[in-house]
Amino acid sequence: MTVPLSILDLAPTSTGRSRRDALDDSLRLAQVAEQAGYKRFWMAEHHGSATFMSSATALLLGRAAEHTSTIRVGSGGVMLPNHSPLMVAEYYGTLATLYPDRVDLGLGRAPGTDPVTAAELRRGGADLNDFAADVLKLKRFFGGSDDATVDHGVPGSQASTLGIEPRAHQIRRAVRAIPGEGTHVPLWMLGSSTGGAQVAAELGLPFSFASHFAPTHIAAALQIYRDRFKADAETAQVDRPTVMAGVNVMVAETDHEAQYQASTHTKLQSQLRFGSTGPLQPPSWDGVGTRVNPGVDPTHIVGTPADVAERIGHFVEAFALDEIIVTCYAFDPAVRENALVSLAEEWSA
């Protein structure tokens, strides 16, 4: 059985196009993804980048959900140490209230930015124990009110709204994420290392592995995740190890055209490697056809629809994956849309 395909988007901007254009392009991609049959449209949190416009993921996902009707939308992911669990529960609980059974919450431990920007975000610790405690809080916030002991006194927030000064003993001690309470938003763990795999296993979470930029660690990470998975954890979301993995793709009618369009991604990788950011650059013929890509390289699967689908299939079989999430970088948004539609058509065929 063919596993589902999903899309990961970072709202990249291209040279000569505005930042608003990038956000509109992202919305159109969500609509195209739904029509093409993709299961999920996820967005990753990034801050301070001149390349990616996906800093306020909850806002962008709300826009995407409002202009689609069936595709699941979610974070891929929210960098949890950047935020309080209560605020995350309120934001994503609001989305889940507005768009029931369509919202996912992927969680990561990385800052999603440089150290200076991370400091301005007033981040908490990324320690595994702290992270696990925050995930447990999220699980309880998304549960029903019975998940916490609730006093029957006047809620402090309600009293202050009414201009009442409640007595200390009357203030409700339980913290509730409303309207997130009772939405039971599905939680995923993101990771690019064995550390993330350990957390996902310990907490009983489905695991989305970032093989699209950390392919050398996937075998070890999935072994640890599957061996140590705890279906009886209080935070458990699934009853067995469940794995999604990422791939970068470029698809075109001919291999030569695909290699040409993929040169935009190659330039982006070079930029990021040297710590610089900026809009996506136009493709060029320089170096096209010289790349050597033996076997399956999830960081760069480039070719015709049939070739790319076949290589993704080999990747799925090699690691017994339950789902694939794809990223695609193209200078022209229309090229990206066509590439992903072509892949979906070939995959379903």
Automatic annotation (TrEMBL):
Gene3D superfamilies: Luciferase-like domain. One of its GO terms (molecular function) is oxidoreductase activity, acting on paired donors, with incorporation or reduction of molecular oxygen. It holds the Pfam family Bac_luciferase. CDD domains: Flavin_utilizing_monoxygenases (cd00347). One of its GO terms (cellular component) is cytosol. InterPro entries: Bact_Lucif_Oxidored (IPR050766), CmoO-like (IPR019949), Luciferase-like_dom (IPR011251), Luciferase-like_sf (IPR036661). Residues 16-319 form the Luciferase-like domain. To bacterial alkanal monooxygenase alpha and beta chains. This is LLM class flavin-dependent oxidoreductase.
